[in-house]
Amino acid sequence: MKRVILIKYGELTTKKGNRNFFINTLYKNIKNKLKKLDVIISKDRSRMYIEFHDSDLDEIKNKLDCIFGIHMYHIAYIVDTNIDSIKNLLIELVQKLEFSTFKVETKRSDKSFSIHSQEMNRILGGVVLKNKDNVTVDVHHPELFIKVEIRESHSYIYFNAYQGAGGYPLGSQPKGMLMLSGGIDSPVSGYLAMKRGVPIDCVYFEAIPHTSLDARNKVIELSKKLAKYSDEIHLHVVNFTKIQEEIYKNCHPSYCITIMRRMMYRIMEKLAIKYHGLVIINGESIGQVASQTLTSMNVINEVTSMPVIRPVACFDKLEIIDLAKKIDTYDISILPYEDCCTVFVPKHPVINPSLEQAKKEESKFDFSSMIDDAVDNVNTIVVCEEENTFKDLL
Q: What is the pLDDT of residues 53-76, one digit of tens each?
């Protein structure tokens, strides 16, 4: 019995004139993910099909689970499109399965097939009842959901359903620049942005010796988790030491976090231009810390005209933690290595900063040349999904 993986697009089917663009992008992503395996991939406007070797099935499923744009997929049995062939295969399949209730649902894409869907359901339901002892039909909560798709060249029978990653195919939107700290929130934000089709570069601000190499390695490990959904992640490491020291030497303690974030946004905008990103992405959640009140966001955002996306802005912390556990970043994020956002937190940071005062505080030192120096001397680490380590600093 020949099997094929049948992929359903879900949200992509809502697209109209540019539907083919999304399907072709998904096709390229799947082909790239499975390039080391012996598979044949075909597609049409409603389905994608992967022919595979049985020995590769588990590896293929693991990779498909990390490809955005897939709503659901099934392991389907291929059969000739005629009623006798479909009946015979269904009898052979159900006799190997254990269940007490079932439902049959037929989708007749080939309208030239003479038997309508509802009639096909009754015929195949009767076949199951006749050839399987002690089973009954349950249309509401069946133990076995038998699905049959009637198509021109071949038809498909399948029972299982595997939930896909959903969203839009990665690369269906231009690139964004993720502010990746070592915390819980920013990797989740990166994941959610990628789910909407946005490829990401990551940017990590470090302040050695105030932060450690362990903190950097923690961010590299987080980048590896995100790289599962892509081929590789470019992690840009910014030396923030000199800027941060000048902030804490010259600015009022209560405004240090505000000024620090304004400097980071200036650097992010320049890096986005340098690496062709169209948006800044971060893990800010409204009201979670002093720099994430709406007033603070407004004052900090003032330094850039580039759009800033905050995917977890309206999530509460428990929701973010649940997502972090789902994508396997939580245990890394809680490792006790501080980044530059936490290592110098003042006792009483301003919650509702004044833009006028923020500008006054940062005018106390010459930051322009330091920002340019930080951008010019960024170190880039290419983090790959399938490597146990990462490529050398570029």
A: 999 999 999 999 999 999 999 999
